[in-house]
Amino acid sequence: MHKIWANYRYLILRRVTQIGILFLYFSANAWGWTILQGNLSSSLLFGMIPMSDPYATLQMLAAGATIAVDLLIGVFMVTFFYMLIGGRSFCSWVCPINMVTDTANFIRRKLEFNRLQGVKFPISRNTRYWILALSLVVSAFMGVAAFELVSPISMIHRGIVFGMGFGWSVVVIIFLFDLFVLKDGWCGHVCPLGGFYSLIGRFSLIRVLHNEENCTLCMKCKIVCPEHQVLHMIGKESLSVTSGECTNCARCIEVCDDDALEFSIRKMAENNK
Amino acid sequence: MSKGKKEPVSDRRKFIFNMARGVGVATLGGFIWSAYIDEAKASQLLLRPPGALKEEDFLKTCIKCGLCVEACPFDTLLLAKPGDHKPLGMPYFTPREVPCHMCPDIPCVPVCPSGALDIQSVMTDDKLDINISEMGLAVIDKDSCIAFWGIQCDACYRACPLLGKAITIEYDKNERTGKHAYMKPIVHSDPCTGCGMCEHACVTQKAAIQIFPREVAMGKAGDYYIKGWDKNDDKRVKNAKAIKTRTDISKKSAIDSLNDSGDLY
Fold it and tell me: Cα–Cα distance between A90 and A14 in angstroms, integer?
């Protein structure tokens, strides 16, 4: 029991926050609770604190919308939190799609798909930044927030609160894509919201810190990491993970049996490397 | 001998190729994406909540949070789901199922964080006033309305929250029987808010009175016609400018054109 907690404590906490947030949104619509109303696009905490999706708002701005003050306050709340504290933690602690892609990745690992698959799907991890830029261009030309009309993320969190419709199909699409086409396909290559939070969160304070002296080079951390390129220092140098693409999911911390990884406050001096 | 031997590809060429490929694929994706969005937002006869901006601006401004839907006490408002064939995640209502009950405190509007539901548009003298909202306009198909057949009904007239203003009853003689009256409902576009209580109440199998977005349902007389007997209507065309057209016929003067058009044959 103690071992399960040691090896899965952050995973359990992440599932609790992910499902808890969706549950609070659901209860606001179903039973009128006022703890957390709305959905991940824009919401109201305790009936007074606004929180809004900064990426959606950026698209609206590109589309030519007038941005209301309430929305701006909500955007600043969210942006400052991820920019100063959380980094890209939205992706692993809040986003419901994370549960879908983690499941696909889990099955891949268990069935050793990565060894079976010969040809790698030719797509770069930088594709998300292209899609991010493209979404703003398309928004500007079409006069509507472009990614928000196709976003599987919003289809899911909106669907759980307000009714799913055919929204389940996008879950299946992403699951199958990540399972059979490309490892970490959606979250690690395609999703522009992840790209957006990677850019915003690159200077945040909470960082995974690698202690090279404890490392036994077992590489378990790199196997579970959905953005394994951010762990380039493993076994080489004692450094903070400074890439914005790290989602602070902490899987690397809990699979490490040698205390070589932990959460820490960013060490400013090391950034100069 | 040098036939099979090629120079190694330079980094510069690789860089240029990669950039060109990125831009090319982005253009390809951009057009497909735009085509989809053009279809997805090309709608339709959607009824929006009270205070909604013009449809074009509403599509830009709504952040799809659903707070208006949660605030609606009658479950009138719904968020468009995948498969509804409506712009995704935005609020709408279907009056035949659940009409807008026109709450005096309009709970759906003040909660809107993005201003897609504009509170100023439902306020008179700094007070919320649902009666000035413009969600749509009721349109009667008189051929399927049983009141126009001569059967007494007035269900829509009774259901109207602006009783006697948005729908009035016009009396007419029923020549067929010679002794009965027609009691025909007439919709007046200015007071009608498009709440849909009439469509909900309509007794025919498919409602003979239906709500459409105002821009769809309403005509426009334009600047050429004014009600000369109405001083207010006169003001409407105060700033209208005459457009002078000159064709071969009216080159000199429009009035003379008929007299000296001999050369036209």
Answer: 10
For residue B222, the model assigns a pLDDT of: 79
* pLDDT tens-digit readout, A87-134: 888 999 999 999 999 999 889 888 877 777 666 777 888 888 989 999
Q: Which residue in B has a C-alpha nearest to residue A168's C-alpha?
A: B82
Asked if residue B97 and residue B53 are part of one domain, the reply reads: yes
Q: B126 and B198: one domain?
A: no
d(CA A132, CA B34): 14
**Per-residue tokens: A221:** 């951390």
Phi (first) and psi of residue A260, to 5 degrees: -95, -5
Contact A158 B87 (CB under 8 A): no
Report d(CA A159, CA B150) in Å as an integer: 47
Same domain, B107 and B117: yes
* Cα A208 to Cα A243: distance, rounded to the nearest angstrom: 10
**Does the pLDDT value for residue A35 go beyond 60?**
yes
Structure tokens at A179: 């399972």
Domain boundary among B217, B242, B260: B217
**Which A-chain residues 33-72 have CB contacts (< 8 A) with chain B?**
37-39, 41-44, 50, 52-53, 56-57, 60, 63-68, 70-71
pLDDT in the model for residue A239: 81
Coil vs helix vs strand at A206: strand
- The structural domain count of chain B equals 2
Q: Compute the mean pLDDT over every residue in chain B, rounded to the nearest whole number.
A: 85
Question: What domain range includes position B209?
Answer: 136-217
- How far does the CA of residue A221 sit from the closest CA of chain B (Å)? 32
* Cα dist from A139 to A102, A104, A147, A152, B71, whole Å: 30, 31, 8, 17, 29
Q: What is the CA radius of gyration of chain B?
A: 29
CATH code of the domain containing B59? 3.30.70
pLDDT digits (tens, 9 = 90+) for A152-172: 898 888 888 887 878 888 889
Q: Determine whether the interchain pair B60/A28 forms a contact, defined as Cβ–Cβ distance below 8 Å.
A: no
CATH number of the domain at B201, please: 3.30.70.20
In a domain, B68, yes or no: yes
- pLDDT digit string (tens) for B89-128? 899 999 999 999 999 999 999 889 888 998 888 888 888 8
